[in-house]
Amino acid sequence: MAVARTRCVTLIGVTGHTVEVEADVGHGLAGTHLIGLLDTAINEARDRVRSALLNSRFEWPDARITVSLFPASLPKRGSIFDLAIAIAVLGAAGAVPAQRIAQPFFLGELGLDGRVRPVRGVLPAALAAARAGARTIVVPALNATEAALVPELAVLSVGSLAELVERLREDEPHRLPATIAAPSPTPGDARRAGESGGEDGRPRLDLRDVAGQATGRKALEVCAAGGHNLWMLGPPGTGKTMLAERLPTLLPPLEREQALEATAIHSVAGTLPPDRPLLDRPPFVAPHHTATVAAVVGGGSGPVRPGAVSLAHQGVLFLDEAPEFSTSVLDSLRQPLESGTVTVARAAGTVTFPAQFMLVLAANPCPCGEAGTPGHSCRCTPTARRRYLARLSGPLLDRIDVKVRVARATRAELMADRHVAESSRTVAERVRSARERALKRLVGTPWRNNAEVSSAALHTDFRLPARALAPLHKGLDLGTLSARGVDRVIRVAWTIADLAGKDRPDESDTSAALAMWLGVD
């Protein structure tokens, strides 16, 4: 009888922290004791682990078993520790060589029959293991491809506890064998796959499907090129939702680091598709208007979970029928729009999630949706119309770069666009060229697109001549522009210039950007 040690990972938000699992099988009254600031799921592990060992034909030590999860001050949650606890107990009982389990990380939930079941958050856990210097990680078979996204690690996938113990007993005494999962797809693979189908195998959405909305399509192109936020106002059936859903088709594939960030968030949330271990396309998240603040920005009554704004990290957050969302939900978007992160404070601690996304709002002009539509009479009172759009507060709309009215298309416009409407591939190529121009200009800075450029840099390193700023000075004098609005118009002007292949915006670009910013006034 002795002490055996192995390692696991606890997740706080989307950040993994190394936990050392120690098991002591010694003298005393027979029983199992788990210590180390544990939640209910880990306290229940003693029963799962005991049944898994017995049903896998291993003896359960008839002694006092103490399992400690170090550091004791770090909160530990979930069933991810089951496999590590079982292996530590077997090591302390002499059933497996203790020296072989000290360095690898063991992640997984145990079924009562000894099967190793998949768990959430394997990617951020594997990243934490790599940072801790681990060379091998043991994960459930269904999580193997996700763990293999971390190139520094050798991944051993197991389907049952008995299979793992056999591997630990039979192979070389100082080396745990590894099964490397399939390599992750490259951005080029993602681009080629996206041309033939969507993420779920269905035909991919295409901007060509939207007919008769030239203004909306142009606004979409500008937002995709610069990473800007968008508000579309118009009656029902005009294509607002169709336009929003096709915005991700104009965006370039995620780079490796961006893809890992987005994938880690979806892994923790449990929304990662089992057949797609790496999210290489910008995510599109569209919560229902009944969503709560916790569902949108993150939180919950138990473990803090990422919300819609974090699930949309590096992608698009779409709020359809935006005025139907509660005021508290809409106002909670203001802070992540500025900082690119969400901080959720609870009594047990504070968790920060990344939340850098493009916000797209869609709204009807009034509750009935017919205000200002030729040939249709609005049934809403003036007070009801004011209250409806007033739910979108001024500070929130001040953070929206592009605002457009989407009107019902005429029959002539619909028929003409069937033949001349551009495809997503065509527009995406212009977006790619514009982004490359911006990247070249922003080399050596922390920013990657025009929407991220700080206000200080806009008025120093990227200051425009007085003639180009003339339309904005007039807007300030008339009170139609705020200081924040000036900065957002300048960012859009840079994007318009990038799309046109210009080195610097001129007066026509700032005028066009101002028109987009004031588009629904």
From TrEMBL:
Q: Which InterPro entries match?
A: AAA+_ATPase, CHLI-like, MCM_dom, Mg_chelat-rel, Mg_chelat-rel_C, Mg_chelatse_chII-like_cat_dom, P-loop_NTPase, Ribosomal_Su5_D2-typ_SF
According to the record, the residues making up region (Disordered) are 172-206
Superkingdom, taxonomy of origin: Bacteria
Is the keyword Hydrolase in the record?
no
Record keywords = ATP-binding, Nucleotide-binding
Q: Which residues form the AAA+ ATPase domain?
A: 226-410
The record ties this protein, via Gene3D superfamilies, to: 3.30.230.10, P-loop containing nucleotide triphosphate hydrolases
Pfam families, A to Z: ChlI, Mg_chelatase, Mg_chelatase_C
**Compositional bias (Basic and acidic residues):** 189-206
Q: Does the keyword Nucleotide-binding apply?
A: yes
SMART domains given for it?
Answer: AAA
Family, per entry: Belongs to the Mg-chelatase subunits D/I family. ComM subfamily.
Question: Can you say what this protein is called?
Answer: YifB family Mg chelatase-like AAA ATPase
